[in-house]
Amino acid sequence: MDPRSPLPTKRLASGTVIAQARDWQTDPVTLDSPALEVMTDLTTVKAATVGPSMTLRQAEQTMIYLGVRTLFVVSEMPAIEGLVTSTDLHGNQQMRLVQQRNIRYEELCVADVMAGLSDLDAIDYEAMKAATVGNVVATLRRHGRNHLLVSEATAGEQRRRVRGVISRTQIERQLGLPVPVTEVANTFADVVQMLA
């Protein structure tokens, strides 16, 4: 075929449908399944992002629109500043901030409630390759988290990149069982916040 010639076309018939993306995370798993089966791989799924100055209402609308419960917080791609989850958007912390600052909820932004980079736990991608779903569940429980990141070294550089996300909700969906997680205080500030 001539590289500049037009391609043949066909008229669409009645009853033609739109291709539906297969939800790659719907396959059932067991605790003995490979851990990678419950990881959202950011090399195949685009990361959902939000800016730190976005209002909480805007962040919530973004989550609803994208069908996610977690957003990466970035000012300048691809550098990550933190994560904000649907749980972060609604809770006691927001009401305390409203009272402390004497502001309205609408004035709060993502930076006010997000988990900063230094607060995030990550599993090494190489460890994930040999792990099971049971290992991941145990890690979520130990850290008292609903989400964990998976990071990997980048070729020829000392910095790491976030390769994937693990969500307790996604694991529950694939296992068909609840995965109870108890929040764990990691710092004195966490203890104070949990007691408030």
Describe this structure in words.
- This protein has 196 residues and is α/β, with parallel strands linked by helices.
- It has one domain (35-184): CBS-domain (Roll).
- The chain contains eight helices and eight strands, in the order E-E-H-E-E-H-H-H-E-E-H-H-E-E-H-H.
- A hairpin with a 6-residue loop joins strand 7 and strand 8 (160-167).
- It starts with 38 loop residues before the first strand and ends with a helix.
- 20% of the residues are buried.
- Residues 186-196 have low confidence and may be disordered.
Helix content: 25-40%
Number of helices: 8
Low-confidence stretches: 186-196
Shape: globular
Summarize the structure.
The chain is α/β, with parallel strands linked by helices and 196 residues long.
Summarize the topology.
Layout: E1 39-41, E2 49-50, H1 56-66, E3 70-74, E4 80-85, H2 86-89, H3 92-101, H4 110-113, E5 115-116, E6 122-124, H5 125-130, H6 133-143, E7 147-153, E8 160-167, H7 168-175, H8 188-195
Parallel strand pairs: 2-3, 6-7
Antiparallel strand pairs: 1-8, 3-4, 4-5, 7-8
